[in-house]
Amino acid sequence: MAQLIVRRLTALIATGTLGVAFLTGPPAASTTLTSAPTVIGGQPDHPWSGAAVYFETSFGADGSSCTGALWKPQIIVTAAHCVMEEAGDPIVSPSAITVWPAGANVEAVAPADVQVTFISAEWIPADGSTVDIAFMTLDRPLGATPITRLAKPQEVSTLAKAGAPITYVGYGLTVPRDDPSQASSPVPLSLSEPLTDMYDENKTFTVLGDGITSTCAGDSGGPYMHEVAGELLLIGPLSGGSGPPCESDGAEADAAGTVVSDFSTMANEALSNAGLEPDQQSISTLVLSEPNTKRGTKVIAAQIGTTGQMRAAVKTRLGRNSPVWVGVYAWDDAADEWTVVSEKRVRTRKNGRLSFTTRADQDQVVALYDKKDRLLVEWDVLAR
After folding, report:
1. At CA 147, angle to CA 73 and CA 50, rounded to 5?
2. How confident is the model over 195-204, as a mean pLDDT?
3. Which domains does the chain have, with CATH numbers?
């Protein structure tokens, strides 16, 4: 995949190129807005439109517009770059944020009668895996949200490996960034894009574009969502992207976001500031089955965390410096066989002991084999 070129998906007056929102001091009332942003080629009236929140941020004389996800009636999840001018800069004052009702036609209604009281953000730029997430707590509920809960890391991993389509809803340009018309729509639009398998310990995800529809300036921070068994799961806010139709940079069309549930400490801090209980729905506990040992192997210790990180120490009957392969395997229903998720080689130490770390998900198997491909020990990864 071409290197992801992260774009700042906001309408900054200082650039003189976007003009999606106009802030020259306090945020303007919706009746004075000449336009509000929307997705290029997106569809209106999506049943999940109520998850999208349009808001404006004042950076002194300049300003920007972004989209946020209404996770809870009093909590908006968005991109960190919507509340910080640059990575490492201070977070803007909560009073610099003006919020519109969720899913609103921002040209037809005034800003909501709410105030942002607390903001936390983490913005860590990196090639292809920028962490870019913020939580904003409101002084009162903004309204009901269609979002049921946060997607658990294991659920995101499963969706990513399957290349599942996920849905974005938000406010952003309806024309390419360099189009002089800067045409836009006052209501949120939606699009569906397939996940890639790039979700990993970096806590970010990537979707592939088709070169025809895409998010663009003003869509930053908007929600990517997926429905499972009647529950609407919030995967995470949009951070940036590359390629057509928004960008004419010649890169592959894709976009990236940050997985919300990987930031449970920040999420619970936002909940606490709203007077709400910590979130438990999005945290599944992974456990290991009893080990199935072979050839005299003994398990000294083995544990797995909620993020799927497994650590184990075992004692084998192998000689010192013997190679052992640590594999993680998943069942492929379509192929009707086990497939390799990951494999690596480690070596035994004195007395045939070895230790290892690996990452595994629910319903996968972690197994150790010797150089003759003989099983030494295996565990099933379960969830409870």
Report:
1. 70
2. 79
3. 13-273 (2.40.10.120), 286-383 (2.60.40.230)
